[in-house]
Specification:
It comes from Nonomuraea soli. Belongs to the sigma-70 factor family. ECF subfamily. The protein is an alpha+beta fold and about 300 residues long. The protein is built from 12 helices and 6 strands.
Length: about 300
Amino acid sequence: MGGKAEEFQELRPLLFSLAYRILGSVSEAEDAVQETWLRFEASPTAARSAKAFLSATVTRISIDVLRSARARREAYVGPWLPEPLLADPYEDPERAAELADSLSMAAMVLLERLSPLERAVFVLREVFDFGFPEVSTAVGRSEAACRQLVVRARRHMAEGRPRFEADRREREALASRFFDALHEGDVDALQELLAADVALVGDGGGKAPQLARAVGGARNVARLMASVFPRMVAVGVVSEPREVNGQPGAIFRDREGKVLYALALDVMEGRVQTIRAVINPEKLAHVGPVADAWAIDREVRGVRRAGE
């Protein structure tokens, strides 16, 4: 028992990282990892390779969960974004670039275009560099079929995949300037940091105040954000700079420190290309106690009326 538990704990970061990329959900990934442990513990025979057994098991569980989640996501209210991940527990220096790129909100949204099988095969092969024999075993398809799945998945991902700013310090500096301008309500300073075709996307899932649709264009986005955020500051909302899915971002909290939403920035060519806000309280519970977004919205509207 001790040996199994130790093997599992050692591989747990990898298993979670695999499951999260397949599912786009922290809570579902954690459940998949826990179910994997139960199956590993209950297995009467010792696996020749704990990594192979556990990776295959968590992949199959994640595929099943994703298939059942597809109908819910198709009926989702407004844009769907993944649950924000503040830190990836798995590290591999040799795969650092692939791991970071695959974690971004942009990449996770693109992964949603893939079938569950394509998504799993792409994550195993392209992100974690599993060999085709291991991929084949994990998804229960022939190696030839897995190669075809990878080709299709690569094509879908390449169609819309962004290239992020390579220099982390430049990204962080730009993000710092962005949040300073945001809190000051400086429209011109914000607009200067935004790409001409920037998009602002919010995911409330019908469970929190959200934009009716994505807002596009540097001037439109700058005006909207510069008008709303100072009012939020006025009612006690504070921002905590954090990496969100490996990209510059912030967690916004109410005056009691409860989580209001997570915001992630896609930075490319020295400009913010996309701003994504996860506001759905069901997607924030793993970050901490969740704020009442509707109450905050009422307070913000009251500040606006008082200023008119």
